[in-house]
Amino acid sequence: MELLAELAAFLTAPTTWAGPNSIPTRLLEHIVLSGLSVIIGGLVAVPVGLYIGHTGRAGLLAVSVANIGRAIPSLALLLILFPFFGLSYGLALTALVLLAIPPILTNAYVGLREVDRDLVEAGRGMGMNEPQLLFRVELPAALPVILSGVRTAAVQVVATATLAAFVAGGGLGRYIVDGLARRNEVLLLAGAVLVALLAVLTERLFAFFETRLVSPGIRVDARRLVMSHPEMAAARPPA
Predict the structure, then answer these.
(1) What share of the chain has pLDDT > 70, as a percent?
(2) Which CATH number fits domain 2-233: 3.30.1330.30, 3.40.630.30, 3.30.470.20, 1.10.3720.10?
(3) Per-residue pLDDT tens over the stretch 183-192
């Protein structure tokens, strides 16, 4: 109870909310790093996933990338990239981008491959070319699954971005690093609580926007699709 009281005192202290090491500053650093990582990862993974999902080529690549991405621990990834980037912001950003790619790529690929083939053939029968089939038929039907992959990536990146503080990346993980260095349990707990709250808020925000962007009927089909593919369900955050 004493530790919780000290945590409450720390979180409500005026000095905690002002200055270069304040919660707003560290929170902004964390959000910017996580946001950049997910955006860059999406710009890489979505086009590749759409291509292999539409054409059916290199499908094994999507599954392999997803499996490798889940198998390599985040800390090990930082150590692998360290000789190339050193202790820098670029190291944290690159590692988080690589973490964001697998769930987005997998969901984009599986989402397109599971689109009802009758819809695709109907589009071809109407004279649509391949780009029209992709963007007018397949992509709208696969959108909820793709958004689910982005949501998974965002939550994973927000949680893992805590490690960025260990390699000069800043963010809320700075409280954990400082807490370890000073043996300050209050700072450690504050960092853990703030990161957990941000991860939960991120998941809820993405879920909210997903319900606004996707019709209810398509969302139901997307849930069935996710549950029928273990490689997607395992990485998906709870609804």
Answers:
(1) 90
(2) 1.10.3720.10
(3) 889 999 999 9
